[in-house]
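HOLO CASE FILE
Compound: MV4
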Amino acid sequence: MIESVLVANRGEIALRVIRGAREMGIRTVAVFSEPDRTSPHVLHADEAYCIGPARASESYLSVDRLLAVARRAQVRAIHPGYGFLAERGDFAEAVAAAGFVFVGPSASTIHAMGDKTEARQRMAAAGVAIVPGTDTPLGSGRDAIRAAKSVGFPVVLKAAAGGGGKGMRVVHRADEVERAFATASREADAAFGDGSVYVERFLERPRHIEIQLFGDAHGNVVHLFERECSIQRRHQKLVEEAPSPLLTVDERRAMGEAAVRAARAVDYTGAGTVEFLYSGGEFFFLEMNTRLQVEHPVTELVTGIDLVEWQFRVAAGEALPMRQEEIPLRGHALECRITSESPFDGFLPATGVVDELEVPGGPGIRWDGGIARGMEIGLHYDPLLGKLITWAPDRPLAVRRMKRALEELKIGGVATGVPLLRRIMDEPDFRKGRLSTAYLPEHPELTDGRLAKPEQDALLVAAALLEHRRRRDRAAPRIRRGGGGLSAWQQRARAHRDGNAAADHPAARRTDPLRSNG
Ligand code: MV4
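Model generated. C-alpha cells follow.
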C-alpha cells in the first residue's frame, strides 16, 4: 500500500482526500498558498507546506514547487484532486518521471480524452454512441458549412481542446456558420492555445447524465451507476443526484455498459466519469473526465463505496475490491453545491470573511466543507465553499431532508447560493424530477432577486393581518382589554424578554394571528 501522499489541491476536495488517506493509515502532506494558511485542509493533514502566494500559477499550479515539496516530504504518491493540475497529462507524466505514484489514470489516457475529437473517434470505435458530427477538426469556414449541412441544423461548434462548454457556439442556419466558425476558432485559440473546432448536432433540452467508473491495472473495469447533473447554470453544476429520477432499469444498464466499453477502449485505471447527453430516449457520449469529480459523494452514498479509498488501492496496484454484480445501488442521494456567489445578482462572485458557520446534522446528512470561521473568501479560487449531501431511502425524503438541511445551514459574512437552493427544493418540477439542462432558464422566478411567489404571498397575508389588527385596536382601545395599554403582541414580546411564559398561553395564541403554530 501507498504509505504517504501529497495532496496537490486545496479546499473541500483536499480535505476529503486527506480524510480518506488518514483512515487508511496513509501519511498526508498538504500544500497551501499564503492566504490558505489557516484552511481546514492544512489543519487536518499530518504535515503542511506553503508553496507560494495566492495566485494559482505561483502555487497550486506550480509543478516545480509541488514536486520540490514531494521530494522534501519524501512522499510515495501525489493526489491531484479535481481542477488545477488534475487533468493535465504533462503533470501526470512529470509526477511519474520524478518517481512518484500519480493517483489517477495514465498520462496517455488523460491526453487522449483531453482531445475531444480523438475521444469521439475512440468512443465510436468502441461502439459507444456519439452525437452525430465530425470526428476531425474543421479545416475552414467552407468546410464547416459543408459539415453543418450534412449533420443537419441546429448544430454546435465546439473547441477540440475544450470541454465543459467553453467556446461552444450554437448555429441555427447555414449562413451563420462561417462567422460562428471564425469566432469559435478565435476563442478556442485564446482559451486553449489551439483553435481547432469540430461540429456536432445540437440537442435541445438534453439531460446531463454521467456514469462513475473505475478501472484497475489488471484489466478490470466496473461502473458505479449514474449521477444526474442536469441542474446547471452556465456549465456549473448546482444540484446533482443519484440515481437519475427518470432513467429506466434498462437504460441504466445500457448506459453503464457503454461507459465500461468506453473505459476499456482507453485502458482506464482509477476513478473516471463518462458524461452523456440524454435526449428523446437516446444517450450520446459527451466527454470523459479523468479525475474524481466534485459530485462523487452522491455515488458514495448510494453504493456505500469510498471512492478515495478505491483510488488509493488502484494506485497501489491492487485489483478492484468488487465485481460489477456486487456493487449495490440503494436509496437516493442529493448534493447541493454551496458557492460564494449571489444567485439573485447574476451569480456575481461574493467576497467576505466567514463570521458564522453552522452546519446541519442528523441522519442522512453529510457536509463536505473546506471553510472555517474566520476564513477570508477572496476571488483567487473557485467559489465552491462546500457541499451539502443528503441520503434517504427514496427521492422525496432525500429532497425534504435537503430542504431541512439547507434551512439549518448558516454561513455568515459572505453571500452564498443557499437561498436559491432552498427555492429549488420547493419547486414543483424539481420535486417531480422533471429535470433538464434548461431547468434554470425555464424557471426564471427562482433566480429573480425580487421575492418568489410563496414569499410574496406570505408578505401580503402579513400586511392584511396587520391592517386588521390596526383597525380592531382603533375600534377597541387597548386600555379596556387590560395588559397595561400594551397590545397582545407587545405583551408577549415583553413576557419573553422577562422570561415569563405566562403570556404565551393558548388564549394569547388565539389573539395573535401572526403567531406561527408550528
Ligand atoms: C451539447 C449540448 C447540446 N448538443 N452538445 C455544455 C457543456 C459541455 N460539456 C457540453 N455542453 C453541451 N453540449 C450537443 N451536441 C448542450 C450542452 C449543454 C449542456 C450540457 C450539459 C449540461 C448543461 C448544459 C447546458 C447547456 C448546454
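CASE NOTES: The chain has 18 helices and 22 strands. The CA atoms of residues 363 and 391 lie 8 Å apart.
CLOSED: yes
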